[in-house]
Design brief:
Blueprint lengths: L2 H17 L7 E7 L2 E7 L5 H5 L4 H17 L2 E7 L1
Parallel strand pairs: 2-3
Antiparallel strand pairs: 1-2
Helix pairs in contact: 1-3
């Protein structure tokens, strides 16, 4: 794992832990899918609404942050929120 990828993963983990109450139930994993790095975010089922937000606003914001990090690192990131 490169330092740049670790930073994007750590960024999503930090934001997710700030959003939820059950911080120990936050799991972040990543894998390469072609030219894209997919970051998987898993939280407790009761906390799912806090990560997705109304009409998906928070999830969209997390994806925007990842896109900005990708632009800086010349890399493509995708976020998958697992149930």
């Amino acid at each position: 794992m490169t330092e740049q990828t670790a930073n994007a993963r750590a960024l999503i983990e930090h934001i997710a832990k700030a959003l939820v109450d059950q911080k120990d139930a936050v799991f972040v994993d990543e894998y390469e899918d072609g030219d894209e790095t997919v970051i998987e975010l898993e939280v407790a089922e009761t906390e799912m609404g806090k990560v997705i937000g109304r009409s998906g606003r928070i999830a969209r914001s997390l994806r925007t942050v990842l896109a900005a990090a990708g632009t800086k690192n010349n890399k493509r990131y995708a976020l998958e929120i697992l149930e």
